[in-house]
Amino acid sequence: xxxxxxxxxxxxxxxxxxxxxxxxxxxxxxxxxxxxxxxxxxxxxxxxxxxxxxxxxxxxxxxxxxxxxxxxxxxxxxxxxxxxxxxxxxxxxxxxxxxxxxxxxxxxxxxxxxxxxxxxxxxxxxxxxxxxxxx
Amino acid sequence: xxxxxxxxxxxxxxxxxxxxxxxxxxxxxxxxxxxxxxxxxxxxxxxxxxxxxxxxxxxxxxxxxxxxxxxxxxxxxxxxxxxxxxxxxxxxxxxxxxxxxxxxxxxxxxxxxxxxxxxxxxxxxxxxxxxxxxxxxxxxxxxxxxxxxxxxxxxxxxxxxxxxxxxxxxxxxxxxxxxxxxxxxxxxxxxxxxxxxxxxxxxxxxxxxxxxxxxxxxxxxxxxxxxxxxxxxxxxxxxxxxxxx
Lengths: 135, 245
Hints:
By secondary structure, chain A is α+β, with helices and mostly antiparallel strands. Chain A has helices at residues 3-20, 41-51, 88-96, 101-104; strands at 23-34, 60-66, 69-72, 78-79, 115-119, 123-132. In chain A, a hairpin with a 5-residue loop joins strand 3 and strand 4 (78-79).
């Protein structure tokens, strides 16, 4: 996902959570970024600060990178995504749609493309903290 | 933990007046050709149209349209689909090329959510979605995630196709999804079986498309495709499909 589109989604989602939690101000937002997404944290942080509304005016954005674990469904081998083994076009395809990895990455032991992304896929809003209405 | 992508999907689609999923419970009934021709005809009459190929494991609309290799969506606060023959066109093939995409259900859902949340369609009159066959994850995800989705059901005169389509219709009716109507593709005689059966199900029978062997030679050439029986029959069907029930 492109960093700006991602920032927009994070802020929209955090706003929904803040409303559910009756927060008048959000002070901290923790975001998990999966390794396969290859997001540049400084660009994401910049996009978040540029797009944030008053609800987030004093918010700190914590961006945590989650390492990937891929597991072969055929032979159960586990391994980690290695960006350096991919050419630029392939890495970019996986950056936009991590499922494209199934077209390019194979199990290092048995060669199957049938693997599960156990960790390191996607972007997640881990939690938010803030100040509640009425104290 | 919350998946933030979900919260922006309907925002991304907010500039689109109508979202039409060209769908069938059965494979091989011509969904992709019908979806592409419908989109082309709508664009030809001046509508702003997008075409989204959601058949991730068996995409074909890029072949029907003759999309050249190496074209990519433009990055602009998301992904802006390139335009071909007047259609804003999005497909997983931009990312996987000619390689197979062996995706399980959870991967299909993830790719679908990813593309729905990053694609910047802008203002459109119609977004036509070429669906994969069946009533699995993509149908359930669209029902779950996309407000204002409407289904256009494609079948052939075959009893085998229509019996499967009936299951899809039952599901969509149960989920209270709007169904524009039924299109009978590859018709070779004047039998009214599908028409009568559709009416019996309470569905609008929008029309039939004659089987035309020339369609094969028109694959990759949109103008030529519009000149086949499919293009001509669809011109009439398009009028009905445009009018809401």
